[in-house]
Amino acid sequence: TVNILIDEPAFNPDFIKIVSLAGKILYNDKVAAGIRQFQVPIDFRQGVYILQMGTGSLTMFTQKLVVTY
Q1: Which residues pair with 40 in a beta bridge?
Q2: What is the pLDDT of residues 32-61, one digit of tens each?
Q3: What residues does each domain of the chain span?
Q4: How far apart, in whole angstroms, are the C-alpha atoms of residue 21 and residue 23?
Q5: How does pLDDT run across 15-35, given as a tens digit for each residue?
Q6: pTM (2 decimals)?
Q7: What CATH class does 2-67 carry?
Q8: Residue environment code for 7-34, b if the CB has 16+ CB neighbours within 10 A, otherwise e
Q9: What is the C-alpha to C-alpha distance for residues 53 and 30, in angstroms, rounded to an integer?
Q10: DSSP code, position 44
Q11: Distance between CA atoms of residues 29 and 24, nearest Å
Q12: Closest to 51 (Cα-Cα) out of 63, 66, 43, 35
């Protein structure tokens, strides 16, 4: 599980995606309006992934996600 906290009041994404470095979408979900903290249930192999959040078709935030065990 990945815990995500949005601490920027002006940022209100409506989607979250986790993408492999090869470009494959591994997780894609809607974010309800007003939600500032949530958990993403993932079970990925160790590695580096890209977490993206945005509105409509526009990605407004990108973060590297490193999975280690």
Answers
A1: 2
A2: 988 899 898 888 999 999 999 999 999 999
A3: 2-67
A4: 5
A5: 999 999 999 999 999 999 888
A6: 0.87
A7: mainly beta
A8: eeeeeebebbbbbeeeeeeeeeeebeee
A9: 10
A10: P
A11: 15
A12: 63
